[in-house]
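stage 2 :: seqdesign
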């Protein structure tokens, strides 16, 4: 009931219960702004403009620039038959249904225990999730569909949808290599992604240039709404006087991202722990650790990763307490509501006027919890022991029935 009460407040109150708690409720354009980015792109498509055009469509009240694959605007076309505010409410309802489906799957496929009750409570009372609803985002939906794609018998289609909505579930695909029953999932997802992406970008190369620039060379974003590890590094490099150029920053952080993702993929492929859920969780966490723009709402998806790790039978008592503590930190609001005393909606980034320590206090708990989850996932893989590369290739050959 508490969950539904907060959701109702998010949906209908001018300033919902969560409004004073978040940078992105106070200092962004308004309720549903991220949903309206997609709504506006869908309207552009309907009215014959380029998907990434910032020209007004005469319907969408406000929006942020659209940065997703063109097919997302196609998927969201039905919402343009509704007024923008009603369409946002419809998306909120769909997000709630995905949450219910994930909780139901966790209860069906994992044994009854206090872990299951804790995971359910964390998901239902997640502050980042309520923020996600307010903004109309879909990081949680993408992450949940990725896991539902691995848990449900007919999940290949759901995994494909998750990859199309946001591309980050692609990093989890090395975990599918270990289990032949998931090869079809990966093939279907990659085929769908190719069909809906490559022909369009070949026909509209400028749209590809725009998509690649905003997603692979992201600018800005280092403000009070960013709770990621790279935000912490950004603060630190400023304070030690290492003012890197934009290209140097992208170079160093890009190398770090590739290195951690590659190392995690190698760990997944060589570990004797063959569970695709644990492997996928480790790879998804590596993505969030190394991604430049990890907003507070992203932790709604990271909490889903934590829930799966917590319910994993491979997680021992020490891992259990670490994951539970991390999930509590992630589910709770940051200290933003206490630090931003003025709550002046005309200011874009209130942290500019804060003492420096306040920015660290804001970001450190979330970063520590994120790294702790990643450490648990890597530890579960390492604890099972490692195979040689020859043994891994032999296993793959046997699965493919390739004679040695």
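stage 2 :: out
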């Amino acid at each position: 009931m508490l969950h539904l009460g907060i959701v109702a407040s998010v949906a209908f109150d001018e300033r919902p219960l969560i409004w004073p708690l978040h940078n992105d409720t106070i200092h962004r354009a308004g309720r549903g702004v991220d949903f309206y980015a997609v709504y506006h792109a869908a309207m552009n498509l309907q009215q014959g403009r380029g998907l990434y055009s910032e020209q007004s469509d005469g319907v969408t009240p406000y929006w942020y620039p659209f940065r997703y694959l063109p097919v997302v605007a196609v998927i969201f076309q039905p919402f343009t038959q509704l007024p923008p505010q009603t369409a946002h409410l419809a998306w909120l309802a769909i997000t709630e249904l995905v949450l219910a489906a994930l909780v139901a799957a966790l209860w069906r496929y994992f044994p009854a225990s206090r872990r299951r009750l804790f995971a359910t409570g964390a998901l239902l009372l997640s502050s980042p999730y309520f923020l996600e609803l307010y903004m109309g985002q879909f990081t949680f939906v993408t992450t949940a569909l990725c896991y539902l794609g691995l848990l449900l018998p007919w999940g290949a289609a759901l995994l494909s949808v998750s990859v199309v909505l946001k591309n980050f579930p692609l990093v989890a695909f090395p975990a599918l290599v270990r289990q032949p029953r998931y090869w079809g999932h990966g093939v279907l997802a990659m085929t769908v992604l190719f069909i809906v992406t490559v022909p369009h970008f070949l026909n509209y190369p400028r749209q590809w240039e725009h998509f690649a620039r905003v997603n692979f060379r992201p600018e800005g974003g280092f403000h009070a709404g960013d709770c990621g590890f790279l935000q912490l590094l950004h603060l630190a490099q400023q304070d030690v006087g290492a003012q890197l150029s934009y290209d140097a920053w992208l170079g160093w952080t890009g190398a770090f991202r590739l290195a951690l993702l590659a190392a995690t993929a190698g760990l997944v492929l060589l570990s004797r722990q063959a569970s695709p859920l644990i492997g996928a969780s480790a790879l998804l966490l590596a993505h969030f650790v190394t991604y430049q723009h990890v907003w507070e709402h992203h932790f709604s998806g990271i909490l889903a990763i934590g829930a799966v790790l917590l319910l994993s039978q491979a997680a021992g008592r020490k891992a259990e307490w670490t994951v539970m503590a991390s999930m509590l930190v992630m589910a709770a609001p940051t200290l933003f509501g206490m630090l931003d005393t003025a709550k002046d909606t005309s200011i874009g980034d209130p942290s500019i006027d804060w003492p420096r320590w306040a920015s660290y206090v804001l970001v450190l708990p979330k970063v520590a919890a994120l790294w702790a989850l990643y450490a648990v996932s890597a530890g579960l893989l390492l604890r099972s022991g490692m195979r040689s590369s020859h043994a891994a290739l032999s296993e793959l050959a046997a699965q493919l029935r390739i004679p040695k």
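stage 3 :: structure notes
- The two ends are 59 Å apart (CA to CA).
- The mean pLDDT is 93.
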